[in-house]
Design brief:
The chain has eleven helices and seven strands. The chain has 263 residues and is an alpha/beta fold. It has one domain: Alpha/Beta hydrolase fold, catalytic domain (Rossmann fold, 3-Layer(aba) Sandwich). The longest helix is centred in the last third of the chain and has 18 residues.
Amino acid sequence: MSVKVFHPKTVLFLHAFPLNKKMFKYQFEAFEKEGIPYIAVDYPGFGEGPKPINLDPRLEDYTDYIVWKLKELGVQKVIPIGVSMGGYIIFDLWRRYRDMVYGMVFVATRAEADDEERKKQRYQLAEKVLKEGKDFLIEAMLEAQTSPATKKDPKKMFELKCIMNEATEEGIAAALRAMAKRPDNTDLLETKNVPTLVIAGADDTKVTPPEVVRKIHEGTRCSRFEVIPNSAHLPPFENPEDFNRLVIPWVKSVLTDGHIECL
């Protein structure tokens, strides 16, 4: 677990599937320079996370694990920055732990639940990973989640592959099943009354295109929508310069004065 906590109000980094908190390495460095408190938690089966105790969990189980970690550290309020699966967890935090949420940053994610075909595909992938290993899935994720600019950077591609390879087969299968069962969160959009930043990757054509991500902004009060160039599904890692230039001033404003403009 990476943590730089100075007081009970902090940024919470929630990583994408099938990565871990290392995908935020550029944010850790930048946030520390700016004196912004943060915590990043690896989900069970990913990075330094514990071994999954249930291979067919609910998404809520991941949220409960993270909240337990926060309370263990005395954190009372968070501004979660969630990428992809991390965004699903933000929705659940808002649904069940609303008093903890001080602001939100959704990155390359969606409010809608999976349709029946997508649910079926996730369960089939989970079974295949448990039987055949994770290599095929990681290669597919590297192809689908990265922009043309990232693909031209062998160092970044190698590092992403290394981060993904830290996931266990059990962790991957459990997360796939949990995401398949997640509820539709569109009903929550109009209830959001805290500062919200919604970010898409300009080149995210295969997972969560900008027009899909934008729906979170369109349905949410007090939100701002931005598109990060030269990035697909992983803007914090693919284009950290533009991502940090956008997110850091926004986070500092929310942390220092609340920047509450919601009615």
